[in-house]
């Protein structure tokens, strides 16, 4: 057979050799630099035992691998099939999925790492990934972009004297769909006679890096500083405020058609005219008063001018949701104080549907005996109400969906009082008639027209997992927010892969149109069987911080009746929430990486300052540094730590701090230049 060399890969380092593996031939390994011996071809493809002084990668504890979908599997693909890359079957290896990271503490016991890499045949020609091998923080080998159906490539690196090996799979820059990545025939050559073996590193659980300030008795106003609505349609806004009560509310310069209930802080009615109105809000309590401006904008398609904040039933209840649980969530939104910090939506996900009557009108099942009454109950608290459906014949849960009944369903949603629609792709694949961009856009455009026909403002959320780079066209089709990834779960691999995949998407976002990397997984979650989030405390802080930096919708997914103090502290940090709700509406992007796990994410804010996240994706604490030049600043700048609620002084050109493993330090940098 002919072995094809990738000349670009051979220019990297003397320690790196790369070959491609032809589908019909024999797998050849390059000379193992630093290893004890060269490896014969048959020892890689069909060995009975690992090479001399070597162990298979699959023999390590794979449960500690971080990845964005599924579970890493020994000698099998991520979907539990035999590992196969372009028809070549490998009896050994690790099947994983982008974005993934295998961090191995070598303990000085290894001399070489070797592996064939590629996308598993179970996804055909789909998927695109990059394999990266880091040794003690430096890139020692990388595959370049690889796609489904291509020959495997071979990576081999010296580990002589090394302490840490990191095996990464990146998503290729186009999201993680179909990125079924194999480390095929992978093994570590060991120092002969070594009593210590390499092991996959674990992240130490350390106390969360946050300080909960004492409750402030003086009134303070929180939440959105701008809200939009269509003139003539129902308007509802709850002034979010904290402080020792009883609180009374005032609003100066309310636009025509709106009134304020001074005892509840609920602004309601219907706007008479288009255009902006600057309303001076006032909240008075037993320990003083507070004022803040709220801009109310009247016009067509002016919804969600800041990312929606609220709660959705799926991540905790899944198919066990019902009317009493929804009422409990609304009650707790008020009692817990979350509404006082700006959370306002209470959304039902799937499994509320029954069937259609003789006229085609959709009916609710016995779990929801009176949807209109439930909506009225939610609205009576000043909160908003959300619903779920699919453009296909059935929902993800197999319930009746909206296909060919879009006008009827939109009318029902309006009559029941819904303010938010999550529209989930699901079975639409069966009727789409193709997979090109026009087919992906069509069902969302159809429902957009149906929503425009009803006499109610309904925030429109596309749930189609980022297909067709939805962030590039979601606004054009009429969405207010759109899912950019697959479903989240409460694991580091899921969280990490999702936020890393958001880099670059921020350039397509503007107020009223937001990227949605899925709902929050803090507190008691469980998709029908609730349990405390499996994310460590610092991972949960990172989760909330990144969603704020990214201008993501903040939809809580936990049991609202079991809110513990830590979860409440996460969800009521007004300094973090203010970043999410910033009126400039420019999400963060990744502006720097140090190659050893440190990342800097940053965004400009409306007051002229910058929000900065110093992120550590490594498995141990490390110092992460932001350079002012990377965020458009220079000279001495004040820095505030938003989870410690502490000013940390003025700093010249840079600021660095120790960040816990899988953690973040969230900062506000600069001097306000405008209010």
Account of the protein in words:
The chain folds into four domains: 7-200, NPCBM/NEW2 domain (Jelly Rolls); 220-298, Immunoglobulins (Immunoglobulin-like); 309-570, TIM Barrel (Alpha-Beta Barrel), CATH 3.20.20.70; 589-669, Immunoglobulin-like. The model is unreliable at 1-45 (pLDDT under 50). It has an eight-stranded parallel sheet. The N and C termini lie far apart (69 Å). β29, α6 (406-416) and β30 form a beta-alpha-beta unit. The radius of gyration is 27 Å and the shape is globular. The chain has twelve helices and 44 strands. With 675 residues, it is an alpha+beta fold. α4 packs parallel to α5. Helix content is 15%, strand content 34%. The longest helix has 17 residues, at 437-453.
**Count of domain modules:** 4
Class of the largest domain in CATH? Alpha Beta
CATH topology of the largest domain, by name, is TIM Barrel
Tell me what portion of residues adopts beta-strand conformation. Answer: 25-35%
Structure keywords:
TIM Barrel, 15% helix, Jelly Rolls, 34% strand, disordered N terminus, Immunoglobulin-like, alpha+beta, seven-stranded antiparallel sheet, 4 domains
Q: Summary?
A:
It contains 12 helices and 44 strands. With 675 residues, the protein is of the alpha+beta class. The chain has 4 domains: 7-200, Jelly Rolls, CATH 2.60.120; 220-298, Sandwich (Immunoglobulin-like), CATH 2.60.40; 309-570, TIM Barrel; 589-669, Immunoglobulin-like (Sandwich).
List strands and helices in order, with pairings.
Blueprint: H1 7-10, E1 17-21, H2 41-45, E2 54-56, E3 66-67, E4 73-74, E5 83-85, E6 88-90, E7 93-97, E8 100-105, E9 110-119, E10 128-135, E11 138-147, E12 152-158, E13 164-170, E14 180-190, E15 199-200, E16 220-222, E17 226-229, E18 234-238, E19 240-242, E20 248-252, E21 258-261, E22 266-270, E23 275-285, E24 288-298, E25 309-312, H3 314-317, H4 323-335, E26 345-347, E27 353-356, E28 362-364, H5 371-380, E29 384-389, H6 406-416, E30 420-424, H7 437-453, E31 459-463, H8 474-477, E32 481-483, H9 492-500, E33 514-516, E34 524-525, E35 531-532, H10 537-549, E36 554-556, H11 565-571, H12 574-580, E37 589-593, E38 598-604, E39 610-616, E40 622-627, E41 636-641, E42 646-652, E43 654-659, E44 663-669
Parallel strand pairs: 17-24, 25-26, 25-36, 26-29, 29-30, 30-31, 31-32, 32-33
Antiparallel strand pairs: 1-12, 2-14, 3-8, 4-7, 5-6, 7-14, 8-13, 8-15, 9-12, 9-14, 10-11, 10-13, 16-19, 18-22, 20-23, 21-22, 23-24, 27-28, 34-35, 37-38, 38-39, 39-44, 40-43, 41-42, 41-44
């Amino acid at each position: 057979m002919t072995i094809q060399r990738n000349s670009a890969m051979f220019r990297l380092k003397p320690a790196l050799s790369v070959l491609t593996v032809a589908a019909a031939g024999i797998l050849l390994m390059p000379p193992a630099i630093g290893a004890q011996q060269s490896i014969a071809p048959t020892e890689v493809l069909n060995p009975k035992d690992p090479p001399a002084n070597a162990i298979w990668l699959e023999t390590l504890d794979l449960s500690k691998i971080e990845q964005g979908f599924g579970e890493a599997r020994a000698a099998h693909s991520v979907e539990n099939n035999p590992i196969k890359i372009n028809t070549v079957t490998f009896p050994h290896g690790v099947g994983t999925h982008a974005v993934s990271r295998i961090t191995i503490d070598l303990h000085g016991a290894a001399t070489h790492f070797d592996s064939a890499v590629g996308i598993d045949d179970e996804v055909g020609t789909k998927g695109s990934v990059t394999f990266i091998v880091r040794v003690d923080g430096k890139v020692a080998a990388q595959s370049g972009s690889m796609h489904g159906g291509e020959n495997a490539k071979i990576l081999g690196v010296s580990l002589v004297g090394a302490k840490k090996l990191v095996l990464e799979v990146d998503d290729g820059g186009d999201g993680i769909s179909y990125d079924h990545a194999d480390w095929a025939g992978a093994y570590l050559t060991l120092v002969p006679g070594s009593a210590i073996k390499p092991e996959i590193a674990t992240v130490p659980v350390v106390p969360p890096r946050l300080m909960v300030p004492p409750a402030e008795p003086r009134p303070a106003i929180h939440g959105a500083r701008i809200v939009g609505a269509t003139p003539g349609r129902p308007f509802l806004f709850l002034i979010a405020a904290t402080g020792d009560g009883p609180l009374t509310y005032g609003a100066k310069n309310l636009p025509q058609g709106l009134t304020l209930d001074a005892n509840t802080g609920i602004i309601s009615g219907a706007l008479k005219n288009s255009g902006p109105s600057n309303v001076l809000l006032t909240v008075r309590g037993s320990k003083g008063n507070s004022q803040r401006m709220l801009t109310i904008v009247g016009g067509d398609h002016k919804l969600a001018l800041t990312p929606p904040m609220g709660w959705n039933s799926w991540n905790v209840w899944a198919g066990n949701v019902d009317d009493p649980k929804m009422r409990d969530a609304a009650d707790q939104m008020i009692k817990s104080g979350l509404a006082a910090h700006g959370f306002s939506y209470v959304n039902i996900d799937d499994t509320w549907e029954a069937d259609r009557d003789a006229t085609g009108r959709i009916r609710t099942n016995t779990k929801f005996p009176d949807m209109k009454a439930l909506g009225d109950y939610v609205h009576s608290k000043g909160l908003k109400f959300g619903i779920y459906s699919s453009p296909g014949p059935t929902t993800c849960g197999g319930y009746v969906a909206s296909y060919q009944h879009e006008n009827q369903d939109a009318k029902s949603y309006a009559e029941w009082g819904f303010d938010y629609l999550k529209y989930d792709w699901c079975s639409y694949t069966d009727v789409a008639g193709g997979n090109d961009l026009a087919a992906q856009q069509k069902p969302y455009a159809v429902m957009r027209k149906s929503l425009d026909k009803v006499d109610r403002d309904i925030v429109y959320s596309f749930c189609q997992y980022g297909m067709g780079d939805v962030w590039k066209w979601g606004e054009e089709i009429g969405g207010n927010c759109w899912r950019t990834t697959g479903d989240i779960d409460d694991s580091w691999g899921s969280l990490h892969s999702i936020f890393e995949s958001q880099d670059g998407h921020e350039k397509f976002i503007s107020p009223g149109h937001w990227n949605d990397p899925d709902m929050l997984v803090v507190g008691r979650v469980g998709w029908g069987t609730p349990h405390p989030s499996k994310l460590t405390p610092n991972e949960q802080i990172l989760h909330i911080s990144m969603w704020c930096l990214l201008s993501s919708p903040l939809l809580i997914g936990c049991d609202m009746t079991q809110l513990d103090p830590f979860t409440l502290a996460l969800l009521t940090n007004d300094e973090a929430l203010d970043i999410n709700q910033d009126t400039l509406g420019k999400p963060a992007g990744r502006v720097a990486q140090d190659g050893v796990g440190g990342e800097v994410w940053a965004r400009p804010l409306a007051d002229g300052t910058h929000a900065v996240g110093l992120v550590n994706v490594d498995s141990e604490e490390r110092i992460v540094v932001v350079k002012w030049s990377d965020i458009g600043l220079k000279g001495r700048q004040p820095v505030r730590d938003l989870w410690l609620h502490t000013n940390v002084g003025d700093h010249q050109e840079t600021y660095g701090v120790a960040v816990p493993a899988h953690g973040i330090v969230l900062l506000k940098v600069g001097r306000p230049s405008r209010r």
